[in-house]
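Justification of computing resources. Each target in the renewal requires a structure prediction run like the one illustrated here; the chain below, 425 residues long, is used simply to show the kind of job we budget for.
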Amino acid sequence: MDGSTAALVAFLHAMPGSGKTYLIDRWLYLRQQRTKEAGVSDSAFFVVELLLDRSRKYAAEALRDELAAKLRITGIDPDAALRARLSGGFLRIENVDSLDAAHAVAGLIQRLNGCRVIVSGRWFDRGAVPARWRERPVGLLSPDQAAEQFIEEIGQSSWDELTQEQQEAVVTRTARLPLAIHLASAFLRKGKSVEWLLERLTSLTLQDVDDPRFGQSVLTVMVDELLTSLERTLRNQPWLADVDGLLHGFHRLGFAHPGGIGSSLAAAVSGLSSADLDDLLTEADSLHLIEREPGTDRFRLHPLIADRLTADIDREPADEAVTDWFCERLPAPADQTVHNTAWHEIHAEFDTLVSWLGWLSGSSQEGSHKGTKAQRSGTISCFRVGRVRSMHYSFVPLCLRVSTLSASNVPVRGSAGSTARTGRG
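Resulting structure tokens:
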């Protein structure tokens, strides 16, 4: 990767569950506090997030188009417009977990020369990291820090009930990884004994705590035990008629956008009713398998948990559900109307919408098929309509690629191509 034009780029890398996201959150919070103390308005401090979907393959131009859509950037020079919009703020890119993703991100950063970018992910190759990137590995928590997190998770009184030997053992056996401690705490909060927890953690095939693979083994065991506990809890609730369906629906939610998902789209992706979804999420939340957004109906899954959920299932039904969900809410060519409820739901799933259009614009046969379906439902032409136009004119580059892929399959009236030529969204 050529990093010659990259500037002001911080790159944090570590294994999953090591607290990269928390570390960035904390750094940005402290930075914002210093900005306030300096008498600078809050509006002068802003962060733009770009969360990569680990199941997708990205190119630099596609990432640029998605970022432009996210920021409502329009015009013939989106690179310059992005540089101007991001000036003074921070672009935060997460889930850079593969070499392909790293190449795409490096290409995007070249286009954003001079912008401040924070990159984080699992991928790391010392010889491939651009020289001007400030690379930092994220280390494990110290024993004291790990103990402090346990206290925050389960409370001081519960922590004090453990013997010193037990405290030292759970700190060591959770590999001092923030995610492992968070998941282990779910068991303790649900009433499991520390002896039970340590028995599970000492049953690992890999016992060398200094082995870099040990932490991954701990996380795998924790997630599997939590999923087993979820199944057991659901099967003990006699009013739930189809527990297998609930569990399969939860696994399908692993395909949701890493930035989070609301209850309406989640019901579609999971194939569950609203009531069944609510029962499922209540139990999953109590086991720390999901992270709810306070005050909303939205939640997200940690990428490692999502990976585990989707390891052995087909993605196709989840993608079909997302396509159907958007197509049901976006206007048909003859309608030209987006109803208020549908508009609110679409707006709430903005990140998924951006990612969905980016996926539709991909070169795969599957993506082309979905592009055809979206056009039949009027999805592409909707970007010419009223309020949709004012918000989504910046989707034209993505829509153009969808239209190009599908043009040979279905005629489209009022396509994004004509929209781009006339200069109207």
